[in-house]
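User:
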Amino acid sequence: MEESVKDFLKEKIFSYIKEHPGTSFVEIENIDDKAKGDLAFTLKEFNIVIWDALSEECCVAIKELISEKKIQLDGGGCIMIYMIDGKRMTLPIAKKMMKYKKERWLPSVLNICGHHKKKKGKK
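Assistant: Predicted structure:
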């Protein structure tokens, strides 16, 4: 993993989320080509996949921002955002936070900590 790429993405992701509450992972993927990859951002303990097309540096940057309590992951009820963004995962959708036997997709957005806005649509 390239530390400088991770730091670059971390700053870019944080700045983007500040300006765009309810940021989808499609938007994260499109922030910069360095964010795209073939790794999944998951909640392994629940067998839930949040998104599956990110670089290692991007995944680490998001995890660090979450652990530093700068951003938060807000899951569930976000499927329309992904439909508007024109991209979604093909896994069955997780209806709630629980441990599943098979992998599920939890449509989620990222917000600045303390803000729970979900987009109603794009301009």
